Amino acid sequence: xxxxRMRVNGTARSLDLDPRVSLxxxxxxxxxxxxxxxxxxxxxxxxxxxxxxxxxxNSCLALAVQYSGREITTIEGISAGDRxxxxxxxxxxxxGFQCGYCTSGQICSAIGMLAEHRAGAPSAVTxxxxxxxxxxxxxxxxxxxxxxxxRCGAYNGIVGAIQEVAxxxxxx
Amino acid sequence: xxxxxxRDRPARERTGRSVGRPIDRVDGPAKTTGTARFSAExxxxxxxxxxxxxxxxxxxxxxxxxxxxxxAVPGVLAVITHTNAPPMKPPPPVSxxxxxxxxxxxxxxxxxxxxxxxxxxxxxxxxAETQEAAAQAAGLVRVTYQESPATVDFAGxxxxxxxxxxxxxxxxxxxxxxxxxxLAAAPVSVDLRYTTPPHHHNAMEPHATTAAWDGDxxxxxxxxxxxxxxxxxxxxxxxxxxxxxxxxxxFVGGAFGGKTMVWAGTVLTVLAARVTGRAVRMTLTREGVxxxxxxxxPSAQRVALGAGADGRLTALIHTSVTQVGRVGxxxxxxxxxxxxxxxxxxxxxxxxIVELDMLSNTVMRAPGESIGTFALEAAVDELxxxxxxxxxELRMRNEPERNPIDGKRFSHRMLREAYALxxxxxxxxxxxxxxxxxxxxRWLVGMGVASAYHPSWEMAANxxxxxxxxxxxxxxxxxxxxxxxxxxxxxxxxxxxxxxxxEAVRVEYGDSDLPTGPGAGGSAQTASVAASLTKAxxxxxxxxxxxxxxxxGSPLRGARPGEVxxxxxxxxxxxxxxxxxxxxxxxxxxxxxxxxxxxxxxxxAGTVAGQVRFMSKFLMDRRRWMKxxxxxxxxxxxxxxxxxxxxxxxWVGAFDVGRVINAKTAASQLRGGIxxxxxxxxxxxxxxxxxxGRIMNPSLAEYHVPVHADIPPIDVCYLxxxxxxxxxxxxxxxxxxxxxAAAAVANAVHHATGRRVRDLPxxxxxxx
Lengths: 172, 768
Ligand code: FES
Ligand code: FES
Description:
The structure holds 2 protein chains of 2 kinds.
Chain A: E1 2-8, E2 11-17, H1 23-30, E3 49-52, E4 55-58, E5 71-73, H2 86-93, H3 103-118, H4 138-144, H5 155-171
Parallel strand pairs in A: 1-5
Antiparallel strand pairs in A: 1-2, 3-4, 3-5
Helix pairs in contact in A: 2-5
Chain B: H1 28-33, E1 48-54, E2 60-66, H2 68-71, E3 76-81, E4 115-116, E5 122-128, H3 131-138, E6 142-147, H4 154-157, E7 162-163, E8 174-176, H5 179-185, E9 188-196, E10 208-214, E11 217-222, H6 227-238, E12 245-248, H7 264-276, E13 280-283, H8 286-292, E14 299-307, E15 313-325, E16 346-356, H9 369-387, H10 391-397, E17 409-410, H11 415-426, E18 438-440, E19 443-455, E20 463-468, E21 473-476, H12 486-498, E22 505-508, H13 525-549, E23 564-567, E24 570-573, E25 581-582, H14 583-590, E26 594-599, H15 604-624, E27 625-626, E28 628-640, E29 646-656, H16 663-682, E30 714-718, H17 741-753
Parallel strand pairs in B: 1-13, 11-12, 15-16, 17-27, 21-22, 29-30
Antiparallel strand pairs in B: 1-5, 2-4, 2-6, 3-5, 7-16, 8-16, 9-14, 10-11, 10-13, 14-15, 18-19, 19-28, 20-21, 20-26, 23-24, 24-25, 28-29
The structure holds FE2/S2 (inorganic) cluster (FES) (2 copies).
């Protein structure tokens, strides 16, 4: 057993875990935070995406013990109190899901992706790796979100929702 | 370019304020905040975890099981095998008198037999205090086998195919005239072979079950598409009364047919809970889903078309070979659409089947039509090229007035209008016909088109509707939510039927304690529930009027049902504003907390009556009408001239799906089907080792479903013309979107490159 202390959605948590427990299972089975989903448990679908110190990670590929001392944010922790995160609202408006199983991962991934873009990180479709201020085109979003599968095929709505939020952010 | 204008029609009157509107899903907040609970997410104190051990041989018997190492893993509670499992009843034989007998994924009585029927069959289940211990111990169970010869090679077995039996609900065979002779005599013809590989549903939520026994009472959380079947099946297998079995499944994380049948994981979780006396949860690994849940059969198809120089079809032949497992499976109705799409003078459709020592195949989104339309619609495109005719024009010349094979009437068919609408939105007129004639720099551009077709169905559904004295409405029906937005659509229907705001309606679903709903399959759920729901609302209105008209103080005193309409939250004399009263006032004056109406009943007699009603309506309908959704799929691809990489760059899908209840969720469902069709066209393929039938790519890393980058904006439009024979005029939309999609891609690839790829998926190696 290994002691793991981390902040989850702003609250300090301490867990005594089998060192084999993934971050995903720590959240779902040990902390009851089942909003984060398990789609493949092998890093291939993105359903388990959470934010670790603001960066998106596939929590199924992470061992909880590696994340001792880190700040983890899950879908349950992204709203500001009663006010949903703008992406949550936009996903509903754009119908960016059907069954909803990939949705937590899509939203957390989008939050991380928007931060990466703001920080100037290029993607495979960015013309110049060193370019700055690359506009967040649909193609950029699609490329950057391609680690998050949606078998229901809600991709158009997801891109629309992210565009809407990105545009509002840019306007601020 | 064809000249078929969209039929001029007046803006249709909306009967109500909710139906048709693009209302946000009612479960949107739950799904976007992570509070929607799926079946592996119900907390139970003292829960234990289970993991499966899969057979590593294809066929034979288990000769020994060594569980010592597994049992020595700390936290392991039990290793359940055929040597120590309590007996279960075998799955019942299939009978139309008991439709739930269709529910068993396979005939195998898992862990009650030493026989192995496919590579990957579960042979043991390990139960432990933690997931980690269960998974580790499952890897330590040592099984020895005696192998028997097995037949697993689909390609090699096709010579031994036998005629496929017609399924009681759907005919697959048929002929008119002598199609082979007509083909031989045709001035222009094509005679082509197509293959499609096995596919897997790959719902994002892997199959998971949480099960807890309390004496002979059982509670099961399981992502099922058929709560009623699952409940009956579990009661039967475990020999307990169905009344004591509760299935709770409000949210299903995608299914697409893969969660219709009762598969091993569900049964063995319930067994593990029985054996250990603990609540047990089992989430299948992604590999476990491939090993224990069937997928779509591969197919080999022949499509031969003969035509005169004018493009009129003189012969249409479509034959198929598909597989089922020796231990079960759903014969795929591959040629279904070929009985209905073209007015050929002579027609022959025929289906054959091979039985293999593999896991049963099962239904997957538009079983039959999804792969059948690929071959048929690609062949029609080839014929158009032979004739030098626009492929839409060729289709329009052969658009039937009546069902071609038997002359039955179409209840509704607007394929012409769908093509006209789609062609305009897509810009089909800008296409230059010769293959390879459209380029954009290094990209070869191609435009392809194909017809979509899916029969529409209606099943039995029990529903109750309650009006409370506060004016709110509660609809109860145990239907399923896998992403279709059923609660939203049914809420819209009830709101209009009762004349209340959408917000006043709450819909309960996904629980066997509710009136039994239809299964989610055949694109039939919305129509089936809608039929009963509108009847129940009608009954409710009548009983509320009965309360009012007896009452001296009511403005509705003496009013007859025909004079009254439901609006503004109450009943009013038609054409007289302010001449009625609210439901709340009616109920309050009558001193009633609520009024309720029911359609269908869950008593034993009620269930039998429901099934009889369903079958007789079904048979009567089928005698009179051909009912279906159809549409026109338009695809633009760009193919890299050097690498053969295919990108889908534009899509328009124009559909005739009857009345649309929710413009937002309907468009999403149609898009979802198209996305899956794009996957089928370009990347999806389950690879099977032809030596032992073992699936070689059981993971999302190696089975390639479309990702964000693969999917362009998909323009979905529909004609929104009600089908006069369907409840509220609505026709199912869950499956028609995938049909025709792969053909549209293949036809566009040909237009871009001049290459015909007749074996899916169209990977770049086939274009180089
Ligand atoms: S569950 Fe982590 S990537 Fe699929
Ligand atoms: S909404 Fe079902 S997988 Fe994305």
